[in-house]
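=== Structure Prediction Worksheet ===
Name of assembly: unnamed complex
Input type: mixed (protein and possibly other molecules)
Chain count: two
Listed entries:
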Amino acid sequence: MPVARRLISRGVHPAAGLAFMLAAPILNPIVLLSTYIAYSGRGLGAEMVLGRTGLGLVVAAAAGFVIARSIEGDVLRPRSQAAHDHHDHGTARGKREAFTDHLSSDFLFMGKFIVIGAAVAATMQTVIPQNVVSGVAGSAVIGPLALMGIAFMLSLCSEADAFVAVSFTAFPLGSHLAFLVFGPIVDTKLAILYGATFRRQFVLRLLLAVVPLVLVGSIVFEALI
Amino acid sequence: MGRAGARVLVLLAWGSFFTWLWVTDEASRYIGSKTYWVVPFGAVAIGIAALAQVFFLIRQRGESGELSRREAAGAVLMLVPLLAVALVPRAELGSFALSRKLRQAPASAPGNVTGGATTQLRARDELGFVSRFESTPPGMFELTRFQITCCVAGAVPVLFTVDPGKLRADYPSETWVKVSGTWRTGGDKVLLVAERIEAVEAPKKRYINGG
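=== Predicted Assembly ===
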């Protein structure tokens, strides 16, 4: 998110910056490799990797485009520069100071929202047992939506979520795909970070764009495999 | 305390925390082996940032601006997780966490257990903690261990049923035991017919793939 924020603030088109931000947690070798390893035991490693790659790419690009067009003006929320020291970036000393200052600023800015998000996610994991969704596993529409809800609640890293998804044995693979694509794009922790970084209603617009796309994609995937 | 002072405090606290995780090996309570690199990286990067901020503070001689209420609240918030670790230093996943999560393997049922085929596969010193569910056959228990890949948030319980036969089986839940015996399978159910059960101390690395 800090990278996407800086890209957009330096002139990259918001649609491109948002697509980058949404796709990066899915479209990287580590995540795809872990997805393959998690599902290879069921003989579906390649299929899940292709599904995650394809649907992740489509959703990220489409969501970035839709959201950028729907928000008038700057998509970024103004950020206080009061705590940002000014450095001479032209000198070696200035560059070192700028590096450590950017590192500190991003850590402190993002950190407090991550703490809030982690606390909310942990509370949800404690209060809501995962088996509440077991009863809807067989539904073609409710099943993916239920696992999207679980993904939102768990707030897992995309490098490890495939190993959690594969344990949802009662759910069809289309629902697994919904879990694997939706979670890295928006979860409890990310929703709070988005709210701090982007303008009002960004999260709502993101959900309105992403949920139908992931749902349709997971149903199509289930029909194809 | 000014703005720079608050920054230094938070960075020093987190840098110290990551360093403590690194030198004490306590990271295995929180993260998996694949993400362990975060600990030394965090210790070094945040430590360097903290030291740099100390130099800035000294050079500016405290003239960094007043700390607003919002900034102070943000600084306090950043320290809350460290306070939580300090208050509950030996936190670990157990039966309560197990009750919240979908399990890796389905719970065994009496019909499948008694109708299963005995294999020649031996199990030696399988380690886990005792847990019991409503579906656990009477006289038996589930041997459970959590497997983590990234961190405990994504921990998945891995468990199988132990048939102690005539051995002692009244271990309280969350007792750590080592079990040796023979595997028995029945469809997708897995049962360990125990030949030896020994109560042990909880291992330092409680989770499979712990960091």
